[in-house]
Amino acid sequence: MKFIHRCVERNIILLNIPYPNTLNGERKTVAVVVPLSNRSHFTADEEISFRHLKNYLGAYDKYLVVPKSLKIERPGFKIKPFDDHFFGSIAAHTRMMLDPTFYEAFQDYEFILTYHLDALVFSDQLMEWCDRGYDFIGAPRLGQSDTPHVVGNGGFALRKVESLLKVLRSDEYAVDPSAFWESFSAGKSLSLQLANLPRKYLKRFRPLNNIRRDVAAYLREPFPCEDIFLSERATKYYPEFNFAPLEMAFRFAFDEVPRLCFEITGETLPFGCHAWHKQDRKFWEPFLLSES
Asked: Quick one: average pLDDT of 90-113?
């Protein structure tokens, strides 16, 4: 039955007819979510990003995620306001993307596609990627080498809402209490161990040793990125969390060194890309949609 529902949705989208809010009372499959900054105007490059989104994914539900204090409207988009402290910096955006309230706001959908305004999409493959069932898929991060070390740049990423909530609501320990005490007490005198004994038992108190504390500590790091946090820690809190394999990630999106990624995919464009005007604008220019 689920397969039939997906086929119905795909045929509706190909005909460029907005698909219904629900299919037999079930949740919708996917929405496109565009996080904004705390400004209401858009650059020329951001308008190109909007143009690609409208052209290829215009039939899907689309949301602008905005600060509560920002008054903005854009045709074809619904508005999802969030507290102002989630906007204005990379750290603030990371805080929002690692807060369960963000995903709770989209619980009517099985998936969301996060689409930053430095992203582009090149075709409508969205339902096909949803059908693959990954919990998270984004462009590989290459870093300073040709070997990807993180799968899943969050600027253009498909996320399974329920799975992200399982991670961010988890009551698993951030640090194993026994391992913590063994490491902490190693080489210390008995008197020091006794003086610090409360630490041993506080680590077993879950509200002080869970993902909420882990996220809070991570946000104090110099350059916190939600996608790196998830790639490194999601399976710690939800072992079944399913990242897409590298070969699929390259087909889904490019980010860094797009010319190398293009070679890897046999000169096949991905579904989308991120940071197109920062990484290699000249590579992407032949694929940009002109203003009609």
From this structure: 97
pLDDT tens figures, 71-100: 999 999 999 999 999 999 999 999 999 999
Sign of CA dihedral 190, 195, 198, 204: negative
Question: What are the residue ranges spanned by the domains of the chain?
Answer: 28-169+224-287, 177-209
Cβ–Cβ < 8 Å for 254, 271: no
Please name the amino acid found at residue 188.
K
Strand, helix or coil at 120?
strand
Ranges of H-type helices in the chain: 2-14, 44-57, 90-97, 100-104, 126-132, 161-168, 177-185, 190-195, 197-202, 211-218, 226-237, 246-252, 258-264, 276-279, 281-284
Distance CA(253)–CA(122), nearest Å, equals 10
The CA distance from 157 to 114, in Å, is 5
Query: Residue 194 pLDDT more than 90?
Result: no
CATH of domain 28-169+224-287: 3.90.550.10
Neighbours of 80 (CB within 10 A): 16
Q: What does the pLDDT read at residue 14?
A: 40
Is the pLDDT score of 48 beyond 60? yes
For the chain, count helices (H), then strands (E): 15, 11
> Cα separations (Å) of 175 from 180, 182, 206, 214, 237?
7, 12, 10, 9, 11
- pLDDT tens profile 265-284: 999 999 999 999 998 999 99
Cβ burial, residue 3 (10 Å; 0-12/13-18/19+): exposed
Q: Return the SS3 of 106.
A: coil
Region label for 291, one of left (φ > 0), alpha (ψ between -120 and 50) or beta (otherwise) = beta
